[in-house]
Write a structure and sequence with these properties.
Layout: E1 4-10, H1 16-25, E2 30-34, H2 38-47, E3 50-56, H3 69-77, E4 82-85, H4 87-95, E5 99-115, E6 128-141, E7 147-152, E8 155-164, E9 167-173, H5 185-194, H6 208-219, E10 224-227, H7 232-245, E11 249-255, H8 263-273, E12 279-282, H9 284-291, H10 297-319, E13 323-325, H11 330-335, E14 361-363, H12 371-380, H13 385-389, H14 408-427, E15 436-450, E16 453-466, E17 474-475, H15 480-493, E18 497-502
Parallel strand pairs: 1-2, 1-3, 3-4, 4-9, 10-11, 10-13, 11-12, 13-14, 16-18
Antiparallel strand pairs: 5-6, 5-7, 7-8, 8-9, 15-16, 16-17
Bound molecules: xanthosine-5'-monophosphate (XMP).
Length: 515
Amino acid sequence: MRRPSVLVVDFGGQYAHLIARALRGLGVFAALASASWGVEGVEAEARGLDVRGVVLSGGPASVWEASHDDIAEWALGLGVPVLGICYGHQLLAKILGGRVDRAPRGEFGPTVVEVLEEDVILRGLPRRLRVWMSHNDAVLEAPPGARVLAVSPGSPVAAFEYRREGLPPVHGVQWHPEVAHSEGGLSLLRNWAEQTGLLGTWRPGDVIGELVEYVRSRVGDGRAVAAVSGGVDSTVAAVIAKKALGDRLTPIFIDHGLHPEGEVERALGLLRASGLDPLVVDASDEFLEALRGVSDPEEKRRIVGRVYAEVLHREARRLGAGYLVQGTIYPDVIESGARPGADVIKTHHNVGGLPRDLGLVVVEPLRWLYKDEVRVIAGRLGLPQGLLEKQPVPGPGLAVRIEGEVTREKLAIARRADAIVREVIESRGLHRGLWQYFAVLTASRATGVKGDRRSYGYVVAVRVVESREAMTANPARLPWEVLEEIAARITGEIPAVTRVVYDITPKPPATIEWE
Ligand code: XMP
């Protein structure tokens, strides 16, 4: 089925996902196409959809340096509503005969725009809008025949409307309605999207049948394995595949021996409560052997990915399966540079570094969905609440929470320290507001005195963060007594640790994990 959609053309920068997600929140299915695919790639992606509107996103380039005139012309030729944002606004203005050049002054951050005409997209918005801008160039003169809808100190044409005989109008806005700090941003997008007739038509909870059908059509009467970790994405993908394939699907849980304490039992419990009975493969010796002597974080990730793939492949062969079901979601597909609508999708796996050529046909039922949509589907499928509340554990597990080489001794220490952090936080009910809470075994050593003896032991870092989606994060302001209890228990219960430090760095500049 070609889904009625808005196509958001991504010109780089971080905005396109925000636009698509805002539209989906309004019940409008929005798909991304990267300008880097060229006009042919964008067109090919659009052919798999029923495009009812196009948004040309912002991006870092100037319309004079990296011109994508062909993409803008193609969008205008579709005869559907077109909205340009920031770079997209300038590109449309240029194509339609307006003048784009260096702005009288660049505008970065909060900017006040004055609304001159409350036309279609600005309907119901205040006359003075505090919005978020980021641009050096500006539309200095609107295209002939266009109406200027808003102005700002650095943008003589901050918004315009260009009417076309017998066709929906073209709109451009210099600011970013998709970012949370733009006043009236969502109303602007809703006003624009209303013209597409799609408001409220996209309901992720309703597409389960379609996803099941997709898996069925891809796998035919073949056999498949599903790599499951106990995380929400891989569990939902496997439950959908199970509905499609029944006994022809084998979910596989690979124990790489790098899980935090209790994680395997937690994951298996959730998987069983989700109606999956995974084949558990204990490959911990193989992983540890491959990681021996390796201390570079990315190399560790690659090795875990490679061994994971090898084990999966071996099991799939043994089971006679030719297909691999994965819980890859939309941002992963787009960020890996693949066209989601293409038949062959590049392999991407959250274990990281999974080799492309697995010798298995990859089936990714969630490849069009965002995380919050997968959660809606999990709820609709009646999957356990614990699945949604579980804190994320990186695919390579403790391999990236032990700085430097992973050894059995360090694994035992990291596991114990991590379990203490978890116990203290969960026993006080503090975990609900937290994104992740864990211990890192650092590569530092420090002197301590235990009893009357001085010792030179390990330093454990405690990382506890609040976040919405891991793009940014803040260290949690835990009560002092909680931190003291964690430090006292870790140094008291683990002889090899002499010191505990608390990481108070937000992301950015730090990442959540230490490696
Ligand atoms: P960072 O450390 O980049 O992490 O701020 C953001 C989120 O991603 C998780 N993470 C990983 N997940 N494989 C994964 O599956 C990995 O290699 C990996 N590295 C980081 C991290 O736990 C956080 O939730």
